[in-house]
Structures are given as C-alpha cells and as structure tokens.
Amino acid sequence: MSARDRAQHAVTLKVSGVSKSYGSRMALNGIDLQLHAGEFVALLGPNGAGKTTLFQLLTGLFVADEGSIEVGGHHIGANPVAALAGIGVVFQQATLDLDLTVAANLRFHCRLHGIPRAVARRRIREELERLDLMDRADEPARSLSGGNRRKVELARSLLHEPNILFMDEATVGLDPASREQLVGYVTSLCRQRSLSVLWATHLVDEAERANRVLVLHKGQLLAQGTPQSLIEHANQPTLADAFLTMTGVNTN
Amino acid sequence: MKPAHAAQAAIALGSREVVKFVHQTGRLLSALVRPALWLIVFAAGFQNVFGVAVIPPYETYIEYQVYIVPGLLAMVLLFNGMQSSLAMVYDREMGLMRLLLTAPLPRWYLLLCKLGAGTLLSTLQAYAFLLLCAAFQVDIPWLGWLYALPVIILCGMMLGALGLLLSVTIKQLENFAGTMNFVIFPMFFISSALYPLWKLQEAGAEWVYQLARFNPFTHAVELIRFSLYGQFNPVSLAVVAASLCVFFALAVYGYDPQRGLVSRKGR
Known about the structure:
The structure holds two protein chains of two kinds. Chain A is an alpha/beta fold. Chain A has helices at residues 3-9, 51-58, 80-85, 102-112, 117-130, 146-158, 176-193, 204-207, 227-234, 239-246, and strands at residues 11-22, 25-36, 40-44, 66-71, 74-75, 87-90, 164-168, 196-201, 212-217, 220-225. In chain A, helix 4 runs parallel beside helix 6 and helix 9 crosses helix 10. The radius of gyration of chain A is 18 Å and the shape is globular. Chain B is built from eleven helices and no strands. Chain B is mainly alpha-helical. The A-B interface holds A 22, 27, 52-53, 59-63, 77, 80-82, 84-85, 87, 89, 91, 93-95, 97, 99-100, 107-109, 111-116 and B 1-2, 4-6, 8-9, 11-12, 16, 19-20, 23, 94-96, 98-106, 257-258, 263, 265-267.
C-alpha cells in the first residue's frame, strides 16, 4: 500500500458502541461507525431518527452515556480541545451573527480557533472566492439569502482546515439549485482535500451522491454500504424504495 | 491552550460584546436612566425621610444622595450582569452558543472570556454613571474614582458570574423576566443599597436584617462605598471574592457536558 493509499484509508472518525438516552427515551442505541479520509458518507434517517443527537455527541456538546468517540485519534471526552480542532461543523440551525458582516463572522471564527491574523485574512478570501461570495464580504449577514448564508457557514467551517466536516441537515430550507450546488461543492472538497464528510439528511437524492450511506432509524444503524449495495440488499429498484422498506414505511 | 490563541479568543468575545453594545444605543441610555431616576427623583423625595447617621466610611453627616451612589453603582453592575446572561440565553436559542462551545478551547476559559467581556461593559457603564453623578454635583471624592476601579471590576465579575450561573438554568428567553424579578429586586432591596442595615434592625425587621447581612450584594455595595473613600473593607472583599468563586465554579459545572444541567436537556 503506497503512502497515498494509506492516507486515503486513514480513519478520521471512530465511533464505538455509542448510546444516549434522554430520560426513558433511547435516542441512540449502540452506534458503531467509521469515517475515512476523503470519504463522503451520508447519514440517512427520517426526522427523529437521532441524527442531531449523534452530531451533538460528535461535536462534544453532549456526552454519550456509553461508548467512545475518537476524532483524529483524540477521544472527544478525554481530550475535547484536540478533537475539536480537527472538526468543522455546519449546524442544522443557522449560527451566523446576522448583525455582523460576512467577513466579521468569519474573523470571529478564526479568532476562536487561534488562526493568526494574516493567515486568517488569506483563508477568508480564498474560501469566499471559491464560493463566489467575495463581493458580499462587507455586507451584513442579514442581507444574504438563505442559500448564501449556508455557503458562508460552510466557508466558515473550513477556515481552520479541519479533517472532518459534519453537516447536519445543512440543506434544509434551500431551493433545489442551492441544494445541488452545496452537495456538489462538498463532494469536490472530499476529493480535493481528502476531507471526510458526514452528511446528515432525510433526503434520499442527496444520499445517492455519497460513497457510503448509513441508515439511521429510531436510534439504531439499520444498514450501511454503497447506495448500490443498499438497493441490492433491500431488493428494491431505487435507494428511496430501499430506504422506505428498511424504515418500515413502505409496506409493499 | 496556547497563550496567543487564548488572547485571540478573549479579544473576539470582548470585541463582539462591545460592538453589539455600541450598536444598541438604547441599552446605554436605559443603563443610565434607571440609576439616574433613583439618584435624582427618589433621593430627592426621601432626602428628609432618611436621616443618615454618621457611619463608616463617612466622617460627617452626608446627604442621602451621596449615601445611595455606591448602591446605584452596584445596581448598574447587577443589571448588566443579568443582561449578559440574557445574551447567553439568546445566543443559545439562536445557535451561536454551539459555535462557541465547539471551539477548540476549554469551556471554563470560554466562560471566563464571556464573563470578562460582560464585566468590561459593566465597568464602562459604572463610570458613565459616576460621570452623571459628577454632572449632578453629587459629592464623591475624585480619588475615589481611582480607588473604586479594582473593586468595581471585582463586583462586576461577581454579579456577572451570578448571571452566568442563572443562564445555565434558564432555558428560554420567556422565562427570563420572571427570574429577574426573583433575583434583581430581592437582591437590591434586601441590601444596604438604599438604607444602612442598622435602620432595618431598628425598625424591628430582624429577619430582613439577617438576610441583608448575608446578601453578597450588600457586600458589593459596602466594598464600593468604602473604596470610594479610599478605605478597605476586608469582610466585604472576602464575601465578594468567595461569591465570585462559588458562582463561577457552579456556572462552569453547569455548562460541563459530562455532569452539568445543560446535558439533561435534549436540545
């Protein structure tokens, strides 16, 4: 195996036996999953499947009742600072400060991550240019459309050059064109930067673009594999049908 | 945590707070109007009702207006401390808190930065109020402005830490007003801000007197009062410093994902 291959197969995220309950309700039950460098993995599940809970655990906002989460070899519970340094997140909920300009929002993030000023300026310009938003840099975030706000959040999540990107239903509320653009951009990031992406969604067409799909339902991973293998496994014509069959909605 | 990284995060949080404050002109105005009303209207009305005997740190009989300045300074700090915690609750609802808590920095340090940023605003407001006092010719020694600085910062941190602690338990903005009524008013009235404590005792309100003696706000007021006259009140200093440590430690505990109250909730 060449050095390049090894780098391609490096495990960036390792989740073992993770469970979490809120009171008597089990939100996640014994989740095992791994992410490799350069991999685009879709976490497909209906609303309430536990996707957001899993993301909250992965980003250290909450702590799992059982199991362990390692990000780039750092345990999120024991060494959260090192683990968080390698993670980029786009949350389901908008997290831009709407009163600040686009550039000020990005600068704020750079400071929180301790990026030196000159480097921060360069990276902010690069990320915004890549997304065609450089001319909006000095406008307040409030003046941007929903799609552009999401793009700014994506740009922000990449400023500290993470190895892993978590996207929690990042396309919610976007029109089809913006959605397509965002998915396309993120898949290209995986290839170009060997970024691992965990993309939570309940939209099957987004999952079809992934290298691997994890099906989450009622807090459990029902299946994982390439979109094609899931279709074959469920013996259905499309991934949408396979998904509906697995989650028990499709009774045909 | 590297020192340069720590400093950058502190600047980020501090400047965000200041920029936001500058944009909200109404906030500075209301921060000043509130104590100004007490100073100008209330104190004038009660000028002759409260005869203030000579008590330390005063050496002569003083006007009632002069008596209530330290209490009003502490009130400015108290209100801003609560307002900062309101901002924390707002940030949590708006999702900005997540951004903060997923930054690669220890949580206690992020909370300390928040507290420092809030205290910076508190201190600025306290001095704006002192300027107002000077404009209304309330007799406060000029050197007292200097002596009071460290004390105002310390008291601002203590009351800010209390706000931080409250923000752990307040889940929604709607619950905020109610909580304020249960914190701000009792703290302010059951203290030496408006009347010396012996007045309470003399009036036979023994339990109110005892409550006021143990109220950290009383000690913040007294610490500021003594410092304005270049005097040192060790008991009050100890109470304020200890309260700061306890409130801050509990707030850090509350925001800890492993143990704290925040983890009990789903979202």
